[in-house]
Design goal:
alpha/beta, 6-stranded mixed β-sheet, two-stranded antiparallel sheet, 10 helices
């Protein structure tokens, strides 16, 4: 199998479309199962928003006790619950990183592949729920902006653009100055006003104070979820292996077996993740950690909980 046909290296449009049937296995519903990373403290902004009150009805075994209306229960002498339905046709913006910093993987997938698959699965799930799908796909040539729309054509355009950006990644690509992370984040802040759901799929290379400021601006009036795509480089690379790394202009050979080098790789990856989780803790923004060491869908099911075919 050539590198161009290996879905762990590059994803095709057909591959992304083939994820549609499996997308129903994940859930972004407000009432997340206990195992979901969106359940609890970091999901506070998600669980209480995007819902419409529908009716009061008698409590039934299995209902969430948190939905009991205690005032009505006390007045009637029988337990009642408040039933909500999710808002439909909400704008959802998927921001997907396909820069050269993502074209790396030491175990299973390239980071760019994990990000593309997670974004495609999410796009299908969002579209099935009746929400509008849009995206910002950014690589080292610039941004590809697609405002949220509800049509199948808009979803196909998003997937096609994503596949093209992923397929263009190559170790032989001409050196370019990487697009700063702040450019797509600023674009997302410009596109969404309020009531939208914004999801960012990236390794967050280039995170700085301006990134945090713009993400905070988005989170003030919208729901925000950050999908951090990591590669277990420092922990799982064979100690006898030498690798060649590049910043797009210069190349250097790195001896991974050197204790100092391995420690610096660990500090770099954990430091970036620490900044993300610090941001998450301060502003109640969920961070979903994805790894290139596993298939993408099982990770999403484990972290988000199963959809079981529901909203």
């Amino acid at each position: 199998m050539s590198l161009r046909t290996d879905p762990r290296i590059h994803v095709s449009l057909a591959h992304l479309r083939g994820l549609r049937g499996r997308a129903r296995a994940i859930s972004f519903r407000p009432g997340q199962p206990s195992r979901s990373i969106l359940n609890g403290q970091h999901a506070s902004k998600i669980k209480g928003r995007g819902l419409n009150f529908e009716e009061l009805r008698h409590y039934a075994p299995g209902d969430d006790v948190r939905t009991i209306d205690w005032k009505v229960t006390a007045r009637t002498g029988a337990p009642y619950v408040r039933v909500y339905t999710e808002e439909r046709d909400r704008p959802v913006l998927l921001v997907v990183d396909q820069r050269m910093s993502m074209f790396f993987g030491s175990v299973h997938n390239m980071k760019s592949v994990t990000a593309a698959e997670a974004a495609a699965i999410t796009a299908f799930r969002v579209r099935d729920k009746g929400d509008r799908v849009g995206g910002i796909i950014f690589d080292d040539t610039g941004l590809h902006e697609m405002r949220p729309h509800s049509s199948a054509r808009a979803l196909n355009r998003f997937l096609d653009t994503l596949a093209q950006a992923n397929g263009a990644l190559s170790a032989d690509a001409p050196a370019r100055t990487p697009v700063p992370l702040n450019r797509p984040v600023e674009a997302a802040a410009r596109i969404v006003r309020s009531g939208a759901l914004v999801m960012v799929f990236s390794d967050f290379d280039g995170w700085d104070e301006d990134t945090e400021k713009n993400l905070r601006r988005i989170a003030q009036h919208n729901e925000l979820i950050l999908f951090s795509v990591l590669d277990p480089t420092s922990d799982q690379l064979p100690p006898e292996l030498d690798i060649v790394v590049s910043d797009g202009t210069l190349q250097a050979q790195v001896n991974v077996g050197d204790d100092t080098v391995r420690r610096k790789l660990t500090d770099f990856s954990t430091g970036r993740l620490a900044a993300l989780f610090d941001f998450s803790a301060r502003y109640a923004v969920p961070v979903i950690p994805l790894t290139t060491a596993e298939d993408t869908l099982p990770q999403l099911i484990r972290l988000l909980g199963g959809g079981r075919g529901r909203g």
